[in-house]
Amino acid sequence: MFSLPDASFFEIVAIWSVFFISFVGLGYALLLRSQILRHDKGTSQMQEVWNAIRTGADAYLKRQLRTILPLIFILTVVLFLSVYIIPPSPEALDRFRNLTLDKVRLVVGLGRALAFVMGAVFSLIVGQFGMRMAVEGNVRVASAARRSFSESLKIAYRTGTITGMLTDGLGLLGGTTIFIIFGIASPDVLLGFGFGGTLLALFMRVGGGIYTKAADVGADIVGKVEKGIPEDDPRNAAVVADLVGDNVGDCAGMAADIFESYEVTIVSALILGLALVSLTGELKWIIFPLLIRGIGVISSIIGTYLVKGKKDEERGDAFKSINKGFYTSAGISIVAFLFLAHYYMHEWRAFFSVAVGIVLAIVIDEVTKYFTHTENAPVKGIAESSKTGAATLLLHGLAIGFESSVWQIMVIAGTILAAILIYWGQPAVYVLYGVAMTGIGMLTLTGNNVAMDSFGPISDNANGIGEMTHMEPKARQIMADLDAVGNTTKAITKGVAIGSAVIAAVSLFGAFMTDITRVQAQMGVPEHLRLLFTGIRVSDPTVFVGMLIGGAVPWLFSSLSITAVARAASLIVEEVRRQFRIPGLMEGKVKPDYKNAVDICTIAAQKELVGLALIAVVSPLLIGMVLRVEALGGFLAGVILSGQLLAVFMASAGGAWDNAKKTIEDGLYGGKGSECHKASVVGDTVGDPLKDTAGPALNPMIKVINLVSLLAAPILIQYKNTSPGMITAIIICAILILGAIIYSKNGRLGFKRIEKKA
After folding, report:
1. What does this protein do (predicted)?
2. Alpha-carbon distance 704 to 636, whole Å?
3. Which residues are CB-neighbours of 491 under 8 A, at least 6 positions away?
């Protein structure tokens, strides 16, 4: 099955070792699962709340699956047929040289379609299984908080690590399996794998984001602001929907998001690596990124297992313990990469490219932490501005969000510049490979990053369960401390996710130029006119127009997603208000109907995500057909730049507002119920859809647009936009985008049906 005739014995062993390591990562996830499930679930009252969260999350995931499956089926067929429009690559013909052209088409078409399904299924597994384990973990964290800080920290972090190791194991398994089967023909198939994971991440990230923030905003407006009751007060009808939302948004959505970044970086690295193999005849360019990923899995296992508090510690430093695990994994990885570069690559440039990626992840961690952690000046400044009201607090948070975008993009620009300098003087494909390896390095510690992210909603849910069941103050304080740290870890992983999205998109940008150049060579285009030689010329007016439109798309996407949250949140507000008018509810004599709020959020999220997904999939096709492929390159550049700046601004501002509120709730400036607290709740409510819906949704959107462009460009370049078929396709795409915008902006009919059901 494995076919690389020039591979050395070491390289063959290395590939199979990486394949085996992917199962080690999955086995570690199962081991942690068995450890978590052995812990008790607390009192019957705690289990009652937990069961409501679990039921709501399951209902959402089942409905989401029904929404997604028809589109998956359609796109599987499209990807299979795409190989009959553009012929298989010369590498695919060489790999299957014993077969006729028709049979090669059949094999590659089936491989691409099945890889798409595999990427989608793996993304679904990471999101759904990881989220279900988070639900299993939250009640156990709450129960453990009654005994010790150390035990509750360990359960929360290791539950999140399960999702991280699923991301590592399945991402590595998919890419390695495709490489083992298809060898040098892997690029023909890998795009399907990346697209499957990316598309599912878009659905899960957008749908989960709308769900979680509709519930959160609605619950806060009525509960905290209007009624003056605590965040997770059991009398609030939306409180269970809010806790469910933490799981479907921050666990399932973020896990799928980072998983597709993990996929996309390995896809682009292997595509560019195979381009270098054809130039140099050395297989090391494609073996090296796979080995890097394998080392990352092992280092993440070691680092994540070290995260635990000291025994008998009443209020430990959870963030310090989590950082210890992260830096341990980073240190192990760097040392291992150094040996690999010296003894296998026999050069240092590849090592420096990967090391720069790890440094990028660490620096983004620190920059994000600076702007969002409760102990740092930005959050303290926002909290202080609450003394003069909500308006000044909002203005201060906006300024912090804008500034954080500047520094993060400077860090990313410096990283890409370093990758360029490392391969200075080499052909462009080497530089693009260096950028791709930076992405590989950045996501080396994916297991740690996803564990840090899932730690946030798990701790948040545990804190909510504690408040709803009136647990003792000591346990509540432990959970509140973990929750505050979880807010920062969530913000950090959002920063890493956004940064990795940009690096992955730049890597795909390189693959985009390489693939088009290859098709141009097959078409007989002179070398000096091919895209890799000419580059994307901003001086060309059509390219500039493409870049302008690309820069606008993230703003449209964000506008529609925030509008969706506002629309759904208004329904939650009305529902919670209605239930508060039920006699005896405020006195605690009558229980609220949590299911109605859960149903409203579930239906709203599924209805809203369809239009947004259509915009991401269809817009690059329309630009490519109307303005042609070079302008499509400009469109991609605009999407990447604008999307990164906007995503970081929203994530950082929202995270800072949230933690400013938490510092006030801990007793600063009058504590809960004070005028400062009310101002901070307004800031948190505004920031919620920014940091948990619109901002994170831009990550998969950027990569969906890039992958659709990469899949479509080799086809579009062969047809004139004046042909009847292209004109028809242009009209259909324009109608789809216009319809998606109108559907997303209007949405009234769907919400009438929701109100009737509720």
Report:
1. Proton pump that utilizes the energy of pyrophosphate hydrolysis as the driving force for proton movement across the membrane. Generates a proton motive force.
2. 11
3. 368, 369, 371, 372, 651, 652, 655, 691
